[in-house]
Amino acid sequence: MTTPPRSLASALFPIGLLLIAMASIQSGASLAKSMFPIVGAQGTTALRLIFASVIMLVLLRPWRATLTAKSLRTVIIYGMALGGMNFLFYMSLRTVPLGIAVALEFTGPLAVAIYASRRAVDFLWIALAIIGLLLLIPMGEASSGIDWIGAAYALGAGGCWALYILFGQKAGNDNGVQTAALGVMIAALFVAPIGIVHAGAALLTPALIPIAIGVAILSTALPYTLEMVALTRLPARTFGTLMSIEPAFGALSGLFFLHEHLSLAQWLAITCIILASVGATLTMRNESKPLVPAD
């Protein structure tokens, strides 16, 4: 009599962890945006990655990883992709609502998923993604249009996310979860000089330190931990399908924390991109564990 409840609980547990992780990432992005007036998106990215690298250094002890010349090259590209993804995403948030930025960024893993499948049904997912992009990208003088530069930054972040997935899988095969810590450290080294040049002494503002630590925990340490646990308990396809709803979490986080109200067309665009991502994940021929970034 007690077996069904335990089975249901064990099935819902990793799903709950993944939902909490997505909410944590987008809440962290909302909190990060509050730092922009003081240190800009550049300084915010630098502080987030610096503190995240310290946290993950302590938790995952990456110095135990064994690196060859080939694996080191892969990890460096992975870390630079991670840094570029975070930097470009935060740059997009200066002028683009959070939910829309996440949706545009999601075109990166969507492209990887579609490329990995290459079946006729993928044209449907491509069409849905294009419809979503056309609804989001500014046309004419519509008041609901999205800033071109901000949209370009978000799409650039999506491109970095695609590289993150491709090289992260290779790097992860060599050193497992320690790759995440190595990647964040390299990302911090890559982005920190940009943030330092842009923000200067403002990065040392005492009031920013607890906020930056909060962003690092919400956007990196907590979700990475929860996602790693969920990955061990969910099929890769289920994991990828659930992750596809992250743009909706971004939109809701932007609405609740940043008071970013989206138009009906923008909500429809986000829905199209979510459906395209879900469809591409469900019809993917080769199942592999997806890698998720800390936006």
Which secondary-structure class do the elements indicate?
A: mainly alpha
Secondary structure: number of strands: 0
Q: What ranges have pLDDT less than 50 throughout 5 or more consecutive residues?
A: none
Strand residue content: under 5%
Gross geometry: globular
**Mind describing the biggest β-sheet?**
none
* Rg calc: 19 Å
Total of DSSP H or I helical runs spanning 4+ residues: 12
Overall tally of structural domains: 1
Question: What kind of oligomer do you see?
Answer: single chain
Order of helices and strands: HHHHHHHHHHHH
Arithmetic mean of pLDDT: 82
Fraction of residues in H or I helices? over 70%
| N-end to C-end Cα span | 43 Å
Summarize the structure.
One of its GO terms (cellular component) is plasma membrane. With 295 residues, the chain is an all-alpha fold.
